[in-house]
Amino acid sequence: MNEVCFKNLDKENPASFATYEASGGYQVWRKILKGKLTPDEIIAELKTSGLRGRGGAGFPTGLKWSFMPRNQEVQKYVVCNSDEGEPGTCHDRDILRYNPHSVIEGMAIAGFVMNATVGYNYIRGEFMEPYYRFEEALKDAYKAGLLGKTLQGSLISFDLYTHLGAGAYICGEETALLESLEGKKGQPRFKPPFPANVGLFGKPTTINNTETFASVPEILSRGGQWFADLGVENSGGTKCFSVTGSVKHPANFEVPMGTPFSKLLELAGGLKEGRTLKAVIPGGSSTPVLAAETAMNMTMDYDSIASAGSMLGAGSVIVMDDATCMVKTLTRLAHFYYDESCGQCTPCREGTGWLYRMLQRILDGNGKKEDLDLLLSVSEKIEGNTICALGDAAAAPVVSFINNFRDEFEYYIKNGKSILEGEHNLIEEATSV
Amino acid sequence: MISNEAKKEIDIWVSKYPKGRESSAVMQALTIVQKENSGRLNSDLIYAVADYLKMPAISVQEVATFYENYNHKPVGKHVVRFCHNISCMLNGSDDLISYLEDKLEVKTGEVTKDGLVSVKKVECLGACVGGPMCQIGDQYYENLTTDKLDKILEELK
User: Fold this and answer.
1) Which of B28, B116, B133, B26 is nearest to B78 (CA)?
2) Where does A205-301 have alpha helices with state H?
3) Contact at 8 Å (CB) between A107 and A121?
4) Closest approach of chain B CAs to the CA of A63, in angstroms?
5) Closest-CA residue in chain B for A164?
6) Coil vs helix vs strand at B56
7) ipTM, interface predicted TM-score of the complex
8) Which positions of chain A have pLDDT values less than 70?
9) CA B52 to CA B48: how far, in whole Å?
10) How far apart are CA A350 and CA A337, in angstroms?
11) Does pTM top 0.90 for this prediction?
């Protein structure tokens, strides 16, 4: 456990420059500055490692980096997406707080590979502690001559700056993030062109998630094969998971890909006293919910979770026990997407409002029999009909909650109250513990 | 309209972006001037930021109304931003928000009579393993209970 991004977690001052250097940090970057590593070698190593974008989409990082027109003589940019805000997700926050130098080194390496001399780390506006931590790390890296212009007598330059958001989940979408970095509303761009061609300030840009950048130095220092072997086929390496909800000890864990879900649940102390597992959202609020039995049989990697009917997403495991009202939970998620829709595409702007209002009506005891089919129909009309994935993300929980727990929704509509308030009154039982 | 200190702070942000791209600093500029104005924006400030960053006022207005962290109505000296999303909800955030409302005699979105505190329900703040949690100023308060909330409120002056 905790071998890559969290490897210094148990040390004193894990975030400090000294701790990072003592654990082998900046060696890859120094090697690059001495001219002993080429961009092609780095891309090949990343491809071997099987590293895939940790922000949720899971796109192979090595391939993404190879798309950049490195020989084109224009300014290019590297951008880090630290706009973490998917409900259930909070491990990038810990990487920024406890291992900021790995993000800096990862971004600098990316800059070298893509011939980009400027980078921005977009940190969500609420993350002030991570922001100060990252700024301190930047200062130390500049002081050590590892950031700046013509570094250590080489021709390599890399300047890195932070940008702070101001509260908008949509800015985690990479092109919305670019818009926001340019000082605009965070509304996703139509693609193509992709950021590798037209990105920040109209220039070629590569955007990766915090955890992805943080994984790069360790991969290059220990080898792509080493990283790949930590995980399973198609899912190389380790992954940081946030385990939250109805568990005894909610926490972040970095474990090898392919770790059984049951093991992860055990690491988090298991379910709360006296409760049984009801459902699991494996990858953050945008990924479909799974019933207990399905979840207990899956392992935490891209393929296994996909065949279970969901997605690894950002690795945000939300655990629900038998006292969780699925109608209330889904309504809360629907409110989130309704609140966070940027308003650009009609199906999402209007659809998320419909979904939320219909669910709230059910929750208020005024649901109608036909509401469930209407909810599914609205979801279907949002899916695939929007510029970015937020629309799909809003639809996925609705469809999966209703399909997996239809009885519970029907009971609520018929009786105007939760099935849990029925004979056993599990809600009262749970809150009185 | 914008103090010299605020201008200095804004200039640091402007210096991070390429020449001619001053508008990239607009989000921070708004955050900075909002802080100086008891935690809220108004149209004079929006015009002033537009002027300072050489942007059309409407573009600044768009940013000021798009992002969650800008306030356009009076807020308390301290804003308790309470997460009510899934991981926090599963660990009792709703009860704590009600507790806070009762104790402060306000509803979410309102300011206490003495102007000291306002409570706002917000979406995920990205500290789910510490839920239920809230943010006051720059700081996160995690694993909250009614006792902890009492102590935190006592310290707000």
Assistant:
1) B116
2) 210-222, 224-230, 261-267, 292-296
3) yes
4) 28
5) B28
6) coil
7) 0.97
8) 423-433
9) 6
10) 11
11) yes
